[in-house]
Amino acid sequence: MAWRPTQYLVQGELDNTAPGKVTGWMEFAGMGQRLRFDLAGDFHRDIRGAKIRFVGKGRRHDPAAAERMHGMALHQTGKAGDITAGLPPRDYADYPYIEWYSRENGRVVLELEPEQVQVIGTPVPASECEPVSREEQGRNLAGFLCEMARNIG
Predict the structure, then answer these.
(1) Low-confidence ranges of the chain (pLDDT < 50)
(2) N or C end: fewer C-beta atoms under 10 angstroms in the chain?
């Protein structure tokens, strides 16, 4: 139901320093160029207002990666899903979890280990922001499922 290319992730950086917007890039094995991100939404409170850098375990020249990553759009637009480093306050997962709803590729999820993620900058104090709305995330998932059903016919 979701595209889960974690094993092909080489590295990336996502930026939520502008409220309501997530931008950045990711490199995946099997792809000759970086993916660029322009998403609506925010990180979870543990990292909201900061950037995150992360490294994956993907090898740039993995022979299986090109086939598995075929069809991944180089420009990802849509909505941020649950994006957290798994730090307190834990509003979602207790490990790094990066999810987005792409107009181009649907739902995409990366699940990482804590040592793979570095927080850059100072997040907005958790006491000054609301948790990511579970209702809104539910609507994001429902919208994805409806679009998938439409595409199937």
Answers:
(1) none
(2) C
Among 47, 82, 68, 66, CA closest to 4:
68
Residue 95: what are its φ and ψ, rounded to 5°? -150, 165
Q: What is the CA radius of gyration of the chain?
A: 15
Residue with tokens 């997962």: 93
The 10s digit of each residue's pLDDT in 41-50 is 999 999 999 9
Amino acid 35 reads L
What sign does the CA torsion over 102, 88, 48, 33 have? negative
Q: What is the 3-class SS of the chain, one letter each residue?
A: CCECCHHHEEEEEEECCCCCEEEEEEEECCCCCCEEEEEECCCCCCCCCCEEEEECCCCCCCCCHHHHHCCCCCEEEEEEEEEECCCCCCCCCCCCEEEEEECCCEEEEEECCHHHEEEECCCCCHHHCCCCCHHHHHHHHHHHHHHHHHHHC
